[in-house]
What we know:
Layout: H1 2-8, H2 11-16, H3 19-48, H4 53-67, H5 88-96, H6 99-111, H7 114-126, H8 128-145, H9 153-201, H10 205-258, H11 260-288, H12 291-296, H13 298-307, E1 313-318, H14 325-344, E2 351-357, E3 361-368, H15 382-391, E4 395-399, E5 406-413
Parallel strand pairs: 1-2
Antiparallel strand pairs: 2-3, 3-5, 4-5
Helix pairs in contact: 3-4, 3-7, 3-9, 4-6, 6-9, 7-9, 8-9, 10-11, 10-15, 13-14, 14-15
Amino acid sequence: MEMAEALRGAPLRFVASTWPLRTAAYVFSSVVSGLLTLVWVPVALMAGAYVLMPLLTSPLAAAERRRVALLGVPALPDPHRTPDRAGLAAWLRARHTEAATWRELAYLVLHGSVLLAVNVVALLLGSAPALVYLTGVANLTTSQAGGPASPTPAMRADAADGQVFALVGGAALAVLGAAVILSYTTALAALAHGALARLLLSPGDEARVRSLTSSRARLIDAFESERRRIERDLHDGAQQRLLRLGMTLVTAQLELDHDPEAARPLLAQAADEARAALAELRELVHGIHPRVLTDLGLRAAVADLSAGLAVPVTVAMDVPERLPAPVESTAYFVVAEALTNAGRHAAATEITVTGSATADTLTIVVRDNGKGGAAPARGTGLTGLADRVDALAGTITLTSPPGGPTTLRLELPCSA
């Protein structure tokens, strides 16, 4: 986690970063939401009479999943499955049978008790220098009130100078100490709180199994659709050309027996039809799995893709010569779809493809300066590819605000 790495770094660098503000905001909001949870959960349990409990507590859990974004990480996904039927009864039945519901309840109970106490203690410890300073100011004021009734002017001047020095110096030390101590106490509290939230509010193994099952079903449908498309393209394209080629050759053979000169143009026509059929077959096979990817690997395949576009593409791929075949294939088709969308729909004039690979992860980023506004739900073709990425336990992220730019980030385990 990035915050944990920042904590292990230089103390002054951590204090001067944005992390103390983030963690302080998370801890302070945790205290507020913890107090709300402390009041609401018992009310929900009593008012819901156990049956309606998920309905009354799920908004709090949903808010907690979104609140972890204050720590610089994505909001936690919803771990619940969609009920098989519509209606409140089906929804409640589904929630009561899910382990995620009871993990949420456990988190809320801890959030309104143990975690609330931890966050309050973190804020109090961080505020200790300020409290000490204010106590000193109060003691100084009290001692002045009980001092000599008629101090001389010299005594008043000396006392005023000493008070100003003490107040300014004490205030500076109090602010510096509070900043340092509060930064670390809230960071540690936020780190522990966030870890527990991810443990109890994130999707468990059962959600992963459901996701893979859904992805597999969508992939099967996609493969079936692709098979029908290939059959249709073969029937309407290459097969028709091969039939015409056969008929032309038969006609030329008949002409050879009677008029050899008349057979020459027929043989030339047959040669043209053979070349056209071969080109269609190559294009069809290229859509299934490009030859350059099989022979030369991902870098060469992406370079070949970029060379065929009308839009200038800058490619910087720092990846090994060969990766596992499923990784190469998935990455290739994601890049191909991103380049197609950028050139055809986004009106982009410049595209950049960067890639890097560590020992266990391949990362590819495709950026374009187009008009933006891309979304998988709008038919960009990325929904099916997301299923392939999910099947390899990878992630694909699309950022495309209106007006651009559009950034697609793909991460795939190299061990796939």
